[in-house]
Automatic annotation (TrEMBL):
The lineage of its organism: Eukaryota, Fungi, Dikarya, Ascomycota, Pezizomycotina. GO terms for molecular function: polygalacturonase activity. It comes from Mollisia scopiformis. InterPro entries: Glyco_hydro_28 (IPR000743), Glycosyl_hydrlase_28 (IPR050434), PbH1 (IPR006626), Pectin_lyas_fold (IPR012334), Pectin_lyase_fold/virulence (IPR011050). This is endo-polygalacturonase. Belongs to the glycosyl hydrolase 28 family. It catalyses: (1,4-alpha-D-galacturonosyl)n+m + H2O = (1,4-alpha-D-galacturonosyl)n + (1,4-alpha-D-galacturonosyl)m. It comes from the Eukaryota. It is found in: Secreted. Its EC number is 3.2.1.15. Coiled coil: none annotated. Pfam families: Glyco_hydro_28 (PF00295). The active site is at H355.
Length: 493
């Protein structure tokens, strides 16, 4: 008969620690038994890169379909987190306590999570309520570059300071604030945390993610409801990108984690006050979130200027309600790429070296609506304001998109770009009409392009697949322009 402790582990660990349920997940099942096989394996696997002496046993490899992400999460959840199991087994009768020597209960200065709500509207207007201290650029000057961060704070209550990766899981269920101080994420190991409701996950010092050449690997996965993720003053997360960069990104060469940080199914939560450097390819995968706020971020991949590729900052999908404010980004691909979702506002963004503030590319069967980019700057990049849909795809709509007060400088390709001819990530010049783009506003777009660049470039499949475009106060110099076919989507001359 299965013990009551095992039952609690199976039921509560998936909730508390973002673990899979061993009753329904084969990989979790083999690890939850905590046999000598998995215990000895995880002791090596989560501590260093895989070597000949740390090969994956065939039973584990089969149960987990050979996926390193599943294996590392299972090790963290069910084997290296023995203190977490003990905590879960006693939560029904006693207040959770931990004996891990690196978990130090302390007090921490607190602040109220400043709520930002994105109103869900059906028109092209975006209604947003923000607090008075939200950073906003002055009209006409684009975004404000952030060079330093003052740091965030916790949410009150007990703070556990954690200095060893293996102790993270236990602290999540014990404390209101979990402070990761100088943590190293071992190779092939995922930092997977479901932040407690109304709790905080905090970062201090520099957290390094060790080299893991695996396209299926996601180093950091975060979930939570009414949760706060923030850095204290000086907090940095380093992805060691130089160990991966080869000029090919996710298209080839050295295998690289496809996304560095995944924010999954987070509701009414925030992510702020962190500097992130040297991510291998795409940084944030934001998916399935509702009413999410991200602010005061320095995202610096400038060290990859020559060899970094596909280093998108914000990749967004299946999200309803996202507010991003005060982000300075240095990268080599899209600053923002919204691939599906609705009701989003990006403001006070500074994007240097990027491929722009982008919608898409949009494939079949998705909806993108009510997205606003405002009071931002895009400099030294290929594109700035960009909407791209995939040629030959259909049954998708892009509507109510606004670009307002965007400053551009030294743009090599397109300052304003709408194209319905993408295939395999690149324009092919043959646009199609299966995806409609409507209700697009370009307002107060100013600045200049580099020699050979386009001030605007519009290539639609027809005048019916691109409709209701509004152009006001466009003042871009230094390039040429093109709009086809001639219709309402083209600016008046």
């Amino acid at each position: 008969m299965r013990s009551f402790t095992s039952f609690l582990v199976a039921v509560l660990l998936p909730i508390v620690l973002a673990c899979e349920n061993p009753d329904t997940h084969s990989c979790a099942s083999i690890f939850s038994a905590s046999t000598a096989l998995v215990s000895s394996f995880c002791a090596t696997y989560t501590a260093s890169a895989i070597t000949a002496t740390a090969a994956i046993p065939s039973d584990i490899n089969s149960a987990c379909s050979g996926k390193t992400t599943s294996i590392s999460e299972a090790c963290s959840c069910f084997v290296t987190s023995e203190t977490a199991v003990a905590l879960v087994a006693t939560t029904s009768t006693t207040e959770a306590k931990t004996t891990a020597k690196t978990i130090i209960p302390t007090t921490l200065a607190t602040s109220t999570i400043k709520a930002t709500s994105v109103a869900k509207v059906t028109s092209s207007a975006v209604a947003v309520a923000t607090t008075a201290d939200a950073a906003a650029a002055s009209a006409g000057v684009g975004g404000t570059i952030i060079s330093t961060l003052t740091g965030g704070a916790g949410v009150g209550g007990t703070t556990c300071t954690v200095t060893a990766f293996a102790d993270i899981s236990a602290s999540v269920s014990a404390c209101s604030n979990v402070l990761l101080s100088g943590i190293t994420v071992p190779a092939s190991t995922t930092l997977s945390v479901a932040v407690p409701t109304s709790g905080a996950l905090l970062f201090a010092g520099t957290m390094t993610v060790e080299y893991t050449p695996d396209a299926d690997y996601t180093p950091i996965v975060l979930k939570g409801t009414n949760a706060k993720v923030a850095g204290l003053a000086g907090a940095v997360i380093d992805g060691l990108g130089a160990d991966y960069w080869d000029g090919e990104g996710s298209n080839g060469g050295t295998a690289k984690p496809d996304h560095f940080i995944k924010l999954s199914d987070m509701t009414s939560s925030s992510f702020s006050d962190i500097k992130i450097i040297n991510w291998p390819t795409h940084l944030f995968e934001i998916t399935g979130c509702t009413d999410m706020t991200m602010s005061q971020l320095i995202l610096d991949n400038s060290a990859g200027a020559s060899l970094g590729h596909n280093t998108d900052a914000f990749d967004v999908s299946s999200t309803d309600g996202l507010y991003v404010s005060g982000a300075t980004v240095y990268n080599q691909d899209d600053c923002v790429a919204v691939n599906s979702g609705s009701n989003m506002l990006f403001e006070n963004m500074c994007c240097d070296g990027s491929h722009g503030l982008s919608i898409g590319s949009i494939s079949s069967g998705v909806t993108v609506s009510n997205i606003t980019f405002k009071d931002s700057s895009v400099v030294n990049g290929e594109n700035a304001c960009r909407i791209k849909t995939d040629a030959g795809d259909d049954d998708s709509t892009v509507s109510d998109i606004t670009y307002s007060n965007i400053y551009v400088s030294n743009i090599t390709d397109y300052a304003i770009d709408v194209q319905q001819d993408y295939e395999n990530g690149d324009p092919i010049g043959d646009s199609t009409t299966g995806i409609t783009v409507s209700g697009v506003t370009f307002d107060s777009i100013t600045g200049s392009v580099a020699d050979g660049g386009y001030e605007y470039y519009i290539l639609c499949g027809s005048t019916s697949s691109c409709t209701d475009f509004t152009w006001t106060d466009i003042d871009i110099t230094g390039g040429t322009s093109s709009c086809s076919p001639a219709g309402d989507e083209c600016p008046s001359t």
